[in-house]
Every structure is written in C-alpha cells, then in structure tokens.
Amino acid sequence: RKRNNRRGWNLHKASKMLKATLEWRLEYKPHLIKWEEVQSESSSGKLWVYHVQDKAGRPIVMMRPRNQNTKETEKQIRHLIYILEVASRMADKNGAGKFTWLLDFNGYTMHNAPPLKVSLHCNSILANHYPERLGLACCYHAPMLFSMTWKAVQPFIDPVTKEKIIFVDKGAHEREQMVTRFDIDQVEQCMGGNLPGCAYDHGKYGSRMHEYDKEVA
C-alpha cells in the first residue's frame, strides 16, 4: 500500500510539473527566442553549446562566469533559456536525451559571480521546466568563493540532480577525471586538454545558431 501511495504521489507530482511547464511554454514561448535576440549576451563566450559532445554522447553546455558581460537579468535569463532549448533539441536529435553542463571556474571572482537571485532563478527554470535534462554537471576548479553560493543554492537542488554534480579540483587526478568524461583533444589547454587557444568563435557559433533557428522554424 505504501508503495502504491508513493507511486500515486509521484504521478501526481509529475502531472503538476508537466501542467506547469506546458503553461509556462505557452506563456513564455521559449521556442520563439531567436539567436538575433540573445547574441549580444553570447558575444563574450560566457555561455554556449560546445562544438562536440561528451563521451556519453551528450551535448555540452559550456559556462564561463569570468566572461560575464551584461547586467540585465531578464536578458541573461532569456539567453540561458535559448541555450537550454538548443541543448535539449540536440540531445533529442542524437538520442541522448540529456546534456552535460561544463563550468570553467578559472577567474571566478565576486565581480563576475551572478547575484544569488539570478542563481536561484536559473535553478528554478532547470528544475521545473527542464527536469531530467541534466546528465552531468562538471565544475572545473571551483574556488572557495563559489562554496558560499553553493551552500545557499544547494538546499533548493533536487537530490537526484545533486548526485549528478561533480567537482574537478586541482591536483594529480584532474586530467584523469576530464579524460574519463570528455574528448581531451577537444578540451582547451586552459582546462587540461590538448586544444590550443579558445574554442569559442562568435562568428562561427552564430552561423551554427542561425542554422538551428532555421530547423526550429
């Protein structure tokens, strides 16, 4: 009986989440956000969909807080949602169903750290409207400063999601951790990989996103 009650409660919860997400999509219309609207947010390469997949075949969303270049919360949120839509569509297209979030914390400071309100809003969007989309979140060289944000946000993160979050710290095993999950030849040298220079090219990335928009249309 307890098992049936729990199953019934889970189905009820899932039904409510689905209803809320459908209502949100009808109102917010995330699929209608175009690259032209958010490209200014992406110009610095702070948040973008990587050009290759991880070793599990999942699209990679790359985030670099040090490249934060704007202050308008609503535009930042719309850019985030556009990226989530792109990654989700790619994940469905290749059959993975989920994406990987790779966070490069090199250069992370109080100056470029997002406000707690924005972090909580982002977590809410991920948890409520893109549930089970996250396959892995890899935090590369997260500093002590980030631990304050992590402590504040952690209680609001679903336990299942929390298990998917890993931290790659500086040390003897960091390259091994990256090699296990990513094609090291496609990871930049600043993150322990073999790819020289910066992988993000705004012009080339913009062309990719224009093609994505055409497919959605």
TrEMBL record:
GO terms for molecular function: phosphatidylinositol transfer activity. Residues 50-199 form the CRAL-TRIO domain. Pfam families: CRAL_TRIO. PROSITE patterns: CRAL_TRIO. It comes from the Eukaryota. InterPro entries: CRAL-TRIO_dom, CRAL-TRIO_dom_sf, CRAL/TRIO_N_dom_sf, PI_Transfer_CRAL-TRIO. This is CRAL-TRIO domain-containing protein.
